[in-house]
Amino acid sequence: MQLQQEKTTTPPSMPPEMAMLQMTSGYWISQSIYSAAKLGIPDLLKDGPKSCEDLAAATGTKARALYRVMRALAQVGVFAEVQEGCFTLTPLSDCLRSDVPGSVRAITILFGEEQYKAWGDILYTLRTGESSFEHKFGMPVFQYYSQNPESGKVFNEAMTSGSDAEKAEVVKCYDFSTIHKLVDVGGGQGSFIASILKANLTLQGVLFDLPSVVAGAQAVISAEGVAERCEIVGGSFYESVPSSADAYILKHVLHDWDDETSLSILKNCHRAMAENGKLLVVEQVVPPGNEPALAKFMDVNMMMLHPGGCERTEAEYRALFEAAGFQLTKTIPTQAMVSVIEAVRV
Ligand SMILES: C[S@@+](CC[C@H](N)C(=O)[O-])C[C@H]1O[C@@H](n2cnc3c(N)ncnc32)[C@H](O)[C@@H]1O
Fold it and tell me: Given Cys at both, which of 47, 52, 181, 282 links 67, Cβ 3.0 to 4.6 Å?
């Protein structure tokens, strides 16, 4: 009897069709969060709760429509309704503010705009094996972001702020103390190399990315107080990378490219580096079988954004490195879903 009672008070697990509907309507939640982030609602709530009338007046939206989105988001914990029509931040929406360390506002906007539209065309990628982003927007991702400065700004901000946890984990988990000069290849606007330099006071750094991207890097590097130890170089890693450093780090670069292009980037690093140089690749590593990992959906994302873009298994990295003249020495997992894959020049 006792057992039976316990059984009936335990909520039944969700029927498969309900669980499936929850998954298939997932974009209702993600696009509602995108709209709140884009409108800057979390920033408007940073000093305390506000009514939907006030929020609507500040964001140029209709109060009733905004209320319905806020009410829906509140039931999944993104905001909380404190009095009728009045909302406050929660820990979840706090990280959508633009002024907090580790803010995910820019990356939420990045996912919600062009990339969301590219996902709407997933069947194109499945049928052709080609990038749905390029199909939709008529050009490669990086060209698109350099020709559309507003979207490019969001992309660069997302790369700068969206990976604070990753940066901290890499700095904590990898020992940079034996390295004298480190080049961050495709390092965006420098927030990653700046965190490594801040934690390793004798290290010299070089930030390398496209000229249009590094044009905005000086402010980031100076604000981090490492300008004296960090050179900023614009160029293309298809052609060459800055020479003579003893280590080259590539974070979320190789996953944008097919094996052939990745190989040419790695060979350029090999050619440029000092003898006994090290290669450090920071990426999500796809685990085997059914093991859950964000890497598996990130892999689909990469497939739709970039021709040949993919996340790789450790064995695939090993093979890629060998083809470029490196030997994989260790893979160090971190708490932030990325691993540091170290290789040496052979
Ligand atoms: C996914 S982002 C990663 C940025 C940064 N490493 C991070 O983890 O936040 C890829 C970077 O590669 C850069 N990139 C793309 N094509 C490039 C090229 N031909 N030469 C140099 N950098 C390039 C982009 O500008 C971008 O900053």
Answer: 52
Q: Is the CB of 78 under 6 A from ligand 1?
A: no
Q: Taking Cα atoms as reference points, which of 104, 147, 141, 173 lies closest to residue 256?
A: 141
> Rounded to an integer, what distance in angstroms lies between the CA atom of residue 139 and that of residue 124?
15
Distance 252 CA to ligand 1 centre (A): 8
Number of folded domains that form the chain: 3
Q: Which of 33-42, 49-58, 98-107 has the lowest mean pLDDT?
A: 98-107
Is there a single domain that holds both residue 311 and residue 195? yes
Kindly state whether residues 51 and 187 are assigned to the same domain: no
Is residue 100 domain-resident?
A: no
Res 159: pLDDT: 86
pLDDT (tens digit per residue) in 115-160: 999 999 999 999 999 999 999 999 999 999 999 999 999 998 998 8
Residue 247: what are its φ and ψ, rounded to 5°?
-150, 145
* Residue 16 structural domain: 2-94
Q: Are 90 and 110 found together in one domain?
A: no
